């Protein structure tokens, strides 16, 4: 699928930003997500390898939601460092089109100033805190992106993330959830719990070869691969 094929389905400014990034051809996972209803604000669970284009899937859903006036977007990440990285990326790409903010402060507060922003990047713990403070702008959140959603199985972060998603599903019945992960042990079960379409694909930009390092030389299982 070419980017041109979805031009009529996304805002013109979003189309321009993606094209400026040099993207003309959509990757397999992106096409599958679109076919699963991503641009119609349907929830999707994306389980594909690293560098397969998951972030753009999230952007297509979230940015369309903002630019069409549907509502705010919250992008949940597991680490503050990743929150900083995503904030800088989205700020660079969409500055002047809508307002992006990153909030990962340890301060337990409602952060009322966030009502002025459209795209909010934060950790699960921070978003959980915001909800518990009855943040007034929660009702206008329409798309929530959960990066590294497989951390639901993490002993430390899993319970917070699970409770957070459960609360959001109850409070916001028309919420679009976009879950992203490179590895999920039970994708079908998780997709059913989320009420999301499952998008799976094994395409990656660089083929992986499995090998063992022996006396300074890599012996690959795939004998057609070049030794390094």
Q: Describe the biggest sheet?
A: 7 strands, parallel
CATH superfamily: P-loop containing nucleotide triphosphate hydrolases
Radius of gyration: 19 Å
Run of helices and strands:
HHEHEHEEHEHEHEEE
Numbering strands along the chain, what is their spatial order in the largest sheet? 3-4-2-5-6-1-7
Distance between the termini: 35 Å
Count up the helices.
Answer: 7
CATH level 1 class label:
Alpha Beta
Secondary-structure topology with pairs:
Elements: H1 12-20, H2 28-35, E1 44-47, H3 54-67, E2 72-77, H4 80-94, E3 100-102, E4 119-123, H5 124-132, E5 141-147, H6 158-171, E6 176-181, H7 187-194, E7 197-200, E8 211-214, E9 217-220
Task: Write a brief structural summary.
The protein is of the alpha/beta class. Helix content is 34%, strand content 19%.
């Amino acid at each position: 699928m070419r980017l041109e094929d979805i031009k009529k389905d996304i805002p013109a400014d979003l189309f321009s930003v993606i094209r400026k990034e040099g993207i003309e051809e959509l990757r397999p996972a992106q096409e599958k997500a679109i076919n699963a209803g991503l641009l119609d604000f349907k929830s999707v669970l994306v389980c594909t390898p690293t560098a397969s284009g998951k972030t753009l899937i999230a952007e297509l859903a979230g940015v369309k939601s903002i630019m069409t006036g549907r509502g705010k977007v919250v992008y949940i990440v597991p680490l503050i460092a990743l929150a900083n990285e995503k904030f800088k990326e989205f700020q660079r790409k969409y500055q002047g089109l809508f307002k992006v903010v990153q909030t990962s402060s340890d301060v337990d507060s409602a952060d009322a100033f966030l009502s002025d922003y459209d795209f909010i990047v934060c950790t699960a713990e921070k978003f959980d805190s915001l909800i518990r403070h009855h943040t007034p702008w929660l009702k206008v959140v329409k798309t929530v992106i959960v990066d590294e959603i497989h951390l639901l199985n993490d002993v430390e972060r899993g319970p917070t993330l699970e409770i957070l998603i459960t609360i959001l599903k109850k409070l916001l019945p028309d919420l679009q959830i976009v879950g992203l992960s490179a590895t999920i042990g039970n994708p079908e079960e998780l997709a059913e719990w989320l009420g999301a379409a499952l998008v799976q694909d094994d395409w990656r930009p660089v083929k992986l070869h499995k090998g063992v390092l022996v006396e300074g030389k890599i012996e690959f299982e795939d004998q057609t691969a070049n030794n390094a």
